[in-house]
Design a protein that fits this description.
This protein has 151 residues and is mostly beta strands. The chain has helices at 55-60, 140-146; strands spanning 2-8, 11-16, 20-25, 39-45, 48-54, 71-80, 83-91, 93-99, 105-106, 118-124, 127-132. It is globular and about 40 Å long. The model has no long low-confidence stretch (mean pLDDT 90).
């Protein structure tokens, strides 16, 4: 399967490309008052308002830096069994795409209940990457907040 390799702080993650719509440069975001800290805001993408979550904040608790390499990865996020909406993932850097077969991924033995979106690890030539399962990124409360019409 093809993955987009992301840099979040010092860590690297693998995001399956099958859900990715587009990778766009960082743009100014309109904040959403009272939203959880990891919700960075919204922006307009081709006429559609897209909520953006800070993937670095979700994984490490640290806010993404606004560097020249900072990107928004737009994905199709499932909001119900037969419906999806656009969701932006704020990342500090997009490194490359890489084919990684499923048998290269393995569990670490540590499973944290608050991070169901963090999957298995794969060892690449230049180090480890951890798979991100975007379907499990948002809990029901945040999903309802960002996609109220679908709740």
């Amino acid at each position: 399967m093809l993955y987009l390799i992301l840099q979040l702080g010092q860590e690297r993650f693998a995001l399956p490309t099958r859900q990715i719509v587009e990778v766009v440069p960082f743009v100014s975001l309109k904040p959403i008052p009272q939203a959880p800290e990891f919700v960075s805001g919204v922006f307009t993408f081709r006429g559609t308002l897209v909520p953006v979550v800070d993937l670095c904040r979700i994984t490490s608790g640290q806010t993404s830096h606004a560097w020249l390499t900072t990107r928004i990865v737009i994905v199709q996020y499932p909001v119900s069994d037969n419906e999806s909406r656009l969701l932006g993932l704020l990342v500090e850097q997009v490194n490359a795409t890489c084919k990684i077969s499923d048998d290269k991924f393995s569990r670490s033995g540590v499973e944290l209940p608050n991070t169901p979106f963090l999957g298995e690890f794969a060892k690449l030539d230049d180090g480890l990457v951890q798979r991100v399962n975007t379907d499990d990124l948002l809990n029901d409360e945040v999903r309802a907040l960002l996609f109220r019409e679908c709740a």
